[in-house]
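User: Hey, my collaborator sent me this sequence without any context and asked if I could get a structure. I don't really work with proteins. Can you help?
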Amino acid sequence: MARRIYKLEHFAKGTGATVVPNEEKERPGPTDDGVNTVRVPRERRRAAGTPQRSSTPLPPGHVRKKSTGEIGRVVSVDARAGTAVVSWLREGRTTTVPLTAISRR
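Assistant: No problem. I've predicted the 3D structure and written it out in structure-token form, which is a compact way to encode the shape of the chain:
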């Protein structure tokens, strides 16, 4: 498969330039333009391992939101509805969340 040589044509009217194939004959081989080219091997990437989560034990009455890891204090639990009212420590707001969305770990 022969490589094609392209040139940037910028003489056209308008704001853009176009890339067109060169009409001249292709060069017979590599030419020495006084520039040395050296191939550098690519560095291998390290395999991205899963980060280890370290969660500390929570004090009594505190829970952690599973989705974000935010810590809050349980105000009340409605077992019939399957929800808990939690006062989040970072933002200071109180929300009602499903029991499946929080954990004691």
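In plain terms: The chain has no helices and seven strands. You can pass these tokens on to your collaborator as they are.
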